[in-house]
Design brief:
- The protein is of the alpha/beta class and about 250 residues long.
- It has a single domain (about 30-235), classed as 3-Layer(aba) Sandwich (Rossmann fold), CATH 3.40.50.
- Helix content is about 30%, strand content about 25%.
- Strands 5-4-6-7-3-8-9-10-11 form a nine-stranded mixed sheet, sandwiched between helices.
- The longest helix is centred in the middle third of the chain and has 15 residues, at about 150-165.
- The protein is globular, with a radius of gyration of 17 Å.
- The relative contact order is 0.20.
């Protein structure tokens, strides 16, 4: 049975429950926001996105997942390895995948020309319009779109996408490979988002690399800006050490 959202009873905005950020921010963040996730290669960005989607699905929300880095078949198989089974949600119409990676393919929704941002915007907008709300929209990843678009066209696409899709019952999460964009373009793009998360490696005691999650921005919200270590659990995704600074 889907979890109850107490914010709905008193007319307050619906909240985006998400364990990794709930551990750092002062309360859950609302729908109607756009999230940017920056991360080093191999740090766990896609796992974070799958966890974000699955937690929404388990709460009775719908999810639109735009696969730009891999085929939907491999996305499903990869998430299955981490215990994130998506099949039942797809069959129920609660989860929809858009294939923005393949040349053709057998998916119901496919972006045929990745160099045409208008096609992507039209398809995403049309699919989202037919989905039950509230909805989490995940784009994995924006960096792959940069291979087909000029920097200016990419920035324009992000602003237009966020403008078209930003609704009180929709939350957006876009993934970016860290330092893959020019610094000026990266700064311009980040301004299009309400929430900015950073995943990165830092040297731990003994010289071992340690995964960290840091909230860099929450527009109008309260959060802890310090980096928090996290580990990846096969069945639960990212587990943030919320007590790290208390020890």
């Amino acid at each position: 049975m889907p979890e109850h959202d107490p914010g709905l009873a008193d007319g307050a905005p619906r909240q985006v429950r998400f364990d990794p950020t709930d551990a750092i921010c002062a309360g859950s963040l609302p729908f109607g926001t756009a999230w940017q996730v920056q991360g080093d290669a191999g740090i766990g960005k896609t796992i974070l996105a799958a966890q974000f989607a699955l937690q929404g699905l388990r709460r009775g929300e719908s999810v639109l997942f735009i696969a730009c880095d891999d085929t939907p078949e491999r996305v499903r198989a990869s998430q299955q390895q981490f215990g994130f089974s998506l099949g039942a949600y797809e069959r129920a119409g609660q989860l929809v995948l858009i294939d923005a990676f393949s040349e053709g393919g057998s998916e119901r929704f496919v972006v045929s020309d990745r160099a045409d941002p208008e096609e992507l915007l039209y398809l995403v907008t049309e699919v989202l319009a037919g989905m039950p709300r509230p909805t989490r929209v995940v784009l994995d990843s924006v960096t792959s779109l940069a291979a087909y678009l000029s920097p200016r066209a990419l920035v324009r696409l992000i602003y237009e996408k966020n403008r078209l899709l930003k609704r009180p019952d929709v939350v957006l999460m876009d993934l970016y490979l860290a330092q893959a964009m020019d610094a000026r373009d990266a700064h311009c793009v980040s301004n299009a988002y309400d929430v900015l998360l950073r995943l990165f490696y830092a040297e731990d005691r003994g010289g071992m690399p340690r995964r960290n999650l840091q909230v860099l921005k929450v527009r109008g919200g309260v959060f802890d800006p310090r980096p928090f270590p996290f580990r990846i659990h096969r069945e639960h995704g990212l587990l943030v050490d919320r007590d790290y600074y208390r020890r």
